[in-house]
From TrEMBL:
It comes from the Bacteria. Residues 22-80 form the HTH marR-type domain. Keywords: DNA-binding, Transcription, Transcription regulation. This is HTH-type transcriptional regulator. Belongs to the GbsR family. SUPFAM superfamilies: Winged helix' DNA-binding domain (SSF46785). InterPro entries: ArsR-like_HTH, HTH-GbsR_regulator, HTH_MarR-typ, MJ1563, WH-like_DNA-bd_sf, WH_DNA-bd_sf.
Length: 181
């Protein structure tokens, strides 16, 4: 399987982005390849397209399955496993965000809650706890917001994204009206 320069550029860039999302570059490249292919691919197809070992593909597919980003398909009369991206782009974004929340935000919230339970021993700890409370409250708000986003349909999410900066302008207008009253 030969990749066109356009597809190769996308796959390579997606690999770099994947490393920022929480999985390694090769896994990101594998996922990109699955996302942009109309037909399901075998592990051998993926290995050939990316010039990586079959073992590396196998480990990468397991990682993607643990994130629930790929699904296995079978074709009649063929014993090979075929892989495709699970769901649409909105589903992918939700799953990546949810996994990152579980791996990064939740442990941080747990640590912050534990640190905020004890009374500070001195002024230095009191200041530190004040900052920890601010971080906790921010992360708690982001978590609640992400839960709301996670429960939205792709259509509603698409509308929300289209609102873009218009939403912040509505909030600013609301604040101006409230402050004038």
């Amino acid at each position: 399987m030969n990749l066109s320069p356009k597809i190769e550029a996308f796959v390579m860039h997606f690999g770099e982005m994947g490393s920022r999302w929480g999985f390694n570059r090769t896994v990101g490249q594998m996922y990109a390849l699955l996302v942009i292919n109309e037909k399901p691919l075998t592990a051998n197809d993926i290995a050939t397209a990316l010039s990586i070992s079959r073992g590396n593909v196998s480990m990468g597919l397991k990682e993607l399955q643990s994130w629930q980003l790929v699904q296995v398909q079978h074709q009649p009369g063929d014993r090979k496993d075929y892989y495709t991206a699970a769901g649409d782009i909105w589903t992918m974004a939700k799953r990546v965000f949810e996994e990152r929340r579980k791996r990064e935000i939740d442990p941080t919230l747990t640590l912050l809650r534990d640190q905020l339970l004890d009374a500070p021993a001195n002024e230095t700890e009191a200041f530190a706890q004040q900052r920890m409370r601010e971080i906790h409250d921010l992360l708690e708000g982001v978590t609640q917001w992400s839960t709301e986003l996670h429960n939205m349909s792709p259509e509603t999410l698409h509308k929300l994204v289209k609102l873009g900066s218009g939403f912040s302008k509505v909030l600013e207008l609301k604040d101006k009206l409230v402050n004038k009253s």
